[in-house]
Structure formats: structure tokens, C-alpha cells
Design brief:
Blueprint lengths: L7 H16 L3 E4 L3 E3 L3 E11 L4 E2 L11 E6 L3 E4 L6 E12 L3 E5 L3 E4 L2 E4 L3 E6 L21 H30 L18 H11 L1
């Protein structure tokens, strides 16, 4: 009696269907599904697919919807599987925030795999408000009077003080210098006495006798 063999083609089609589903399903993953109002959170978009296929990432603007704002978008990175070079993964990180409290639904992100639309699973975000204890509320404190001392004034105006002292010292020095400066004496040339002849000198002496 011959044993019935399981059709090989059927196994092939089952494997193609299973792995095709796995590699053709993009993923949107939040790092948290619960934030305080105004707090930032992230969504990582990734898509693993056969390298020979083409994928178009979803176009994301400044908002995902009327409640979720997009703060930053990373560039789209491409990573190849070390164990299977025919498989590659595209990844992008979104930095988001929300200023509306409550539960916010984030619609699926739509990719195009060889022009065929494929979507991620929808996400749900809970935004909580900050709880304020009314028992801890207090009146606004009045402004505190701070003494402004002479030292504080010097710290604020030390450049002007130093400049004024320098100018005063320079003026004092110039006054002292010009007041005590001795006048320069110009020497007067002395004319030498004329030398008289001997007979004139003798005649003068006889006259004086």
C-alpha cells in the first residue's frame, strides 16, 4: 500500500502566505500609551519586506489628527537582515505630544507595497491632566524687599568709578607737574673786556698818581 504524500506545492503556498503576511505587515509601536498633557512620546514605524519590492512610507505633516501634534520626524533608515540579505527593514521615529486630555484614537498608518496599500494597527493614547490638590493652594506672596547697599552699587558701577578715579588722578598729576616745573634758564653771553695797549695802561697809571 502506497503512503499518501503531502503535496509539496500546498506546503509552498502555505509558507508563502504565512511569510508574505509577516513581511508585508508594517508596525506602529508607541513607547507608552499613557502621558500627561503636554508630555512627549514616540511612535516607531517599521516595515520589513523582501528587498526586491518597493515601499512608500506614509506622508506625515505637522499633526496626526486634531489632537496629536508632530514635534519631530527622524529620517527613514534602511536596515538589511544579516541572516537574510534579501530582506530589509525601513524605520522612522516620530516625536509627538498632545494638549487635549482624554482617550485619543490614532488612525492606522498606510504604506504602499508595490503600489498596494497596507496599514498598521490603530493605536489608542490616554492623555491625563495634572491633578492639583486644592488644599495646597496658597495666596501669591508679595515681593520681597531687598536692601541695596553701597557695595552693591559699586559692583554695578565699578567701571564708571574706576574711569572717574583715573581721570581725577591724571588731572592732579598734570597740575602738580606744571606747578613745580622749574623754568629753563637761557645763559647770557659775557663780553670779554678789551685788552688795552701797554702805553695806554702806563698813561692811565700816571694819571691816577
Amino acid at each position: 500500500m502506497k503512503k499518501k504524500k503531502f503535496p509539496g506545492k500546498l506546503i509552498f503556498f502555505i509558507l508563502c502566505f504565512v511569510f508574505g503576511k509577516i513581511f508585508s505587515q508594517p508596525v506602529a509601536k508607541m513607547d507608552t500609551n499613557k502621558i500627561l498633557i503636554g508630555q512627549q512620546f514616540h511612535i516607531d514605524l517599521s516595515f520589513s519586506f523582501p528587498a526586491q519590492k518597493s515601499v512608500v512610507f506614509p506622508s506625515i505633516g505637522d499633526t496626526l489628527n486634531s489632537h496629536v501634534e508632530v514635534i519631530e520626524k527622524s529620517k527613514i533608515d534602511t536596515v538589511f537582515d544579516k541572516n537574510n540579505i534579501a530582506l530589509k527593514t525601513l524605520h522612522q521615529r516620530l516625536t509627538l505630544t498632545s494638549f487635549d486630555s482624554g482617550f485619543i484614537a490614532i488612525a492606522p498608518f498606510q504604506f504602499l507595497l508595490d503600489s498596494v496599500p497596507v496599514e498598521t494597527e490603530p493605536l489608542l493614547l490616554e492623555v491625563q491632566t495634572i491633578q492639583i490638590d486644592s488644599n495646597q493652594l496658597a495666596d501669591i506672596k508679595a515681593p520681597i524687599d531687598v536692601e541695596y547697599s553701597f557695595i552693591d552699587w559699586l559692583k554695578d558701577n565699578w567701571k564708571w568709578v574706576c574711569g572717574s578715579l583715573f581721570i581725577l588722578a591724571l588731572i592732579t598729576y598734570l597740575i602738580y607737574y606744571f606747578k613745580n616745573k622749574k623754568p629753563t634758564l637761557i645763559p647770557v653771553p659775557i663780553k670779554p673786556k678789551p685788552i688795552l695797549p701797554a702805553h695806554v695802561i702806563a698813561f692811565q697809571k700816571l694819571t691816577s698818581l
